[in-house]
Amino acid sequence: MNLTAKYEIYILEDDPEIKKKKQKELFELSKQVRKALNFAYTEQFNYFTAITREKQYPGLYKNMPYSFKAKKKEKIIKGWSKSNIAYKLMNEMEMFQDLPGVIRSTIQQEANKRFNNDIKRILSGEATPSSFKYPCPIYIHKDSVNLNNDDGKYYMMFFPKIYDITFRVLAEKRNYIKVIMDRVLSGEYDIGQSNIKYEKGKWYLRLCFKINEGKIKLDKNKALGVDSGFKNPLVYGIADTPIRGIIGDGDIITKRRIAYKKRWNIVQRSLSHNGKGSCGHGRKRKLMPLKKLEKAFQNFKETQNHQWAKEIINVAIRERCGIIRMEDLSSIAEDKKDSFVGMNWAYYNLMNKIEYKCKKFGIEFQKVKPAETSQRCSKCGHISEENRPKDERGWGYFCCVECGFDRLGEEPRVQKNIADYNAAYNISGINEWRPEAIIK
Fold first, then answer.
1. Which fold has domain 219-250+315-439?
2. Is the pTM of this model over 0.85?
3. Where exactly are the structural domains of the chain?
4. Average pLDDT along the chain, 440 residues, taken 10 residues at a time
5. Helix axis angle, 16-56 to 68-76, nearest 10°
């Protein structure tokens, strides 16, 4: 599984003149990358056009004077293809010789990816060939970057034999990205194709890494509890620790669902007013716009579920959790019917995706019965319906009538979701207070 972490970086240089010179080198390199990306994209488009026309009109390029198109037609016989033509042409052109070979190779791949995404829309007339904007990311091959830790501070050099530039990597600004950097340095995570980019007056490193499954060390007694929030798709926590978080934005998903429903009603009304001319193609043809809308929303849900499942797995690995526990809502409990998942989402599909990804990384997946997880106080263990009453105080209210526990911190978002965090902590430690709730 390929993952990405974003780090703020800056050039490590005391002399302002030298620092300014090195920054200028990076800007020039970014311009070169942009020029090469647009060249590679254009050449792939021209190659595609030449091949398509040659198939339609055999011999079209036979007597043409020497040109890029004629050259490409000649080279096709020698094993050139859309996937490598730009790279080979760049290797022959003097203007791209300053770019390291691994950057040229990556440029070919990125241009190929963009072209493959665009070509269907170009052929259908929905779009024109796109171009890459400045500033472009400077691609870094895994063998061309040196990362090190010196007394708790992190540094990076890329292409050390070509560019004498050292960056200070601000990995310690947030704990979770610091953990990722430490695991990359220890070899637990493998570096992939990364890049640096200038954004809003600062340089950033997008470090692509892959979890080395053979080196993951998990605590088989540590469980990540996951609750389906009333306003948030997933809320997680680890019992007896301050670790907690929210995955997904319920408001955005709800707005998307409402927008789809509104669009559905508009299309449905328009179909009811269609004239006789539109009825001659049969019911299937008439309902096609509705089917497209339904498929689009289903695809959106699939994508979101994959993304959320991936994020939950990342949290479990980052915190060394050997178990992920989730409520079994296959027959949604009474107190979950009004929840975000109960109203809006394919929770069973999401649970299956998380379970599948758990197997890949050796994480045990456990389903638990949801009874009393919302009514129990995660601090003192007291269970009462009065802890979380269903009244005008709202879905996020929780206050233990026994010990008075009603807050986890001063952050408004944390306090607003205290009931969901409390439930996640209870699910995480359910083996201690109600082990029979774990479904075998």
1. Nucleotidyltransferase; domain 5 (3.30.420)
2. no
3. 1-213, 219-250+315-439
4. 85 91 92 91 81 61 43 46 74 83 86 87 84 89 86 86 87 82 87 90 91 78 88 89 87 80 83 59 72 84 88 90 88 51 67 87 90 91 90 82 82 77 94 90
5. 70
